[in-house]
Amino acid sequence: MNATAVIDIEKIRTQFPVLHQKVNGKPLIYFDNAATNQKPQQVIDALVSYYQGYNANIHRGIHTLAEKATKAYEETRHSMQKFINAKHIEEIIFTRGVTESINLVASSYGRAFLKEGDEVIISGLEHHSNIVPWQIICEEKKAKLKVIPITEIGEIDLEPYRKLLSSKTKVVAVNHASNSLGTINPIKEIIKLAHEVGAVVLIDGAQAAAHLEIDVQDLDCDFYCISSHKMYGPTGTGILYGKKHLLEKMPPYMGGGEMIKEVTFAKTTYNDLPYKFEAGTPNIADVIALNEAVNFISTLGKEQIAEHESELLDYAAEKLAAIPGVKLIGTAKEKVAVQSFIVEGIHPFDIGQMLDARGIAVRTGHHCTQPLMDRFGIEGTVRASFSVYNTKTEIDELVEGVKRIVNFMKP
Ligand SMILES: Cc1ncc(COP(=O)(O)O)c(C=O)c1O
Questions:
Q1: Strand, helix or coil for residue 130
Q2: Looking at residue 217, what is its pLDDT?
Q3: What does the alpha-carbon distance between residue 242 and residue 202 come to, in Å, rounded to a whole number?
């Protein structure tokens, strides 16, 4: 395995136990990082240490274990605040991940502030998680959902976006980076334009958190959503960032324990932020372990990670494009390390299965972006997505695998 950037890939790989196994008799090559990336030992250790040493419910207990668990849980909130440069600690809400964060905003903000005739704008690049919650609330409130078109290389077309914006636009919801094509969107510009017409902006940061610097104050976004499991952390948790003044005026999303101040049968008063949006026992262990994922990323440095991944992406794109019959889908100028492709005459699913037989894990299908696949007139793609622990040698294996499949399937 060869290292490409200044970071020591061999050393990094030793921190990921899952990578050191054979799949179908071949060393595992994991290129499904956009779906979920692997977890370093320090994240796994944090989970074990919580369950072995101080498993307790948080906030309500006054005993030692409960206090220790509460402190560790709240430490992650502080880390996430720093990670995205949020101004106030109350702006960090723990959720199950991006899907729940978007549903929270669509339900709570949408229900309180959208009305008949209002418009919500999303882009043609969105994951179903950033489409369906808006469809649901638009239907309920008789608001209209509008979609920014995508160019042939997979970029958001800003000209039509400008034309879609009007005083009717109340929400703009787009991703920071596309999970299917890797496109990094010009979100600062998108946010600025939306604010000019008085709309609030939600950014789906699922594919950005592990790769791109996020500064919510500089971006000036109103909401930003992150999933822990796409940034080396455990599944089942993530955050919603929201500007304090907006979160304060939004009604609760779920009712239950922890989100209340006082309950009587006549009336309930709600807790302060962020607890107003954290009903019930949260995912304590996973939130605590997320702190270690932040530490892992911070120790390496996002710039270094991005540099390595971008080298891998360029290398893979060039080699894959050179294979006869292969067509790259998504060739935007600015991309995270995701490369989708199709092969003439061969179904993506068959390619995925044949690569799996060689120990190579890729994702095939529509990647929860069916409207985007429709835009390109395809059913789905093969998607290879790269992470900090991947190498060019692994990409050579992928390219060799695709070449063999192409030759084998030739009519
Ligand atoms: C761009 C994007 N948005 C939203 C999601 C949903 O994230 P989660 O399933 O972690 O809630 C994903 C997951 O693949 C994604 O890639």
A1: helix
A2: 98
A3: 9
Q: Does the beta carbon of 207 lie inside 6 Å of ligand 1?
A: yes
Do residues 257 and 58 make contact, with C-beta atoms less than 8 angstroms apart? no
Between the CA of 175 and the centroid of ligand 1 the distance, in Å, is 10
- Stated as kind and residue range, the H or E segment containing 226 is strand 223-227
Any atom of ligand 1 within 6 Å of the Cβ of 179: yes
- Residue 61: pLDDT band (50, 70, 90) is confident
pLDDT at residue 114 in the model: 98
- Look at ligand 1, atom 14, and give the residue with the nearest C-alpha: 35
Span from the CA of 108 to the centroid of ligand 1 (angstroms): 20
Short-list 348, 361, 350, 384, CA closest to 179: 384
Name 349's Cβ contacts closer than 8 Å, sequence gap at least 6.
364, 365, 380
Q: Per the confidence metrics, is the pTM higher than 0.85? A: yes
State if residue 364 touches ligand 1 by the CB under 6 angstroms criterion.
no
Report which secondary-structure segment, H or E, holds 274: none
Residue 291 has pLDDT above 70, yes or no: yes
Mean pLDDT for the chain overall: 96
Phi/psi for 31 (5° steps) reads -120, 35
Q: Is 206 in the pocket of ligand 1 (CB under 6 A)?
A: yes
Residue 15 has φ and ψ, to the nearest 5°, of -85, -5
The strands making up 169-175's β-sheet, listed across from edge to edge, are: 92-95, 238-242, 223-227, 200-204, 169-175, 119-123, 144-148
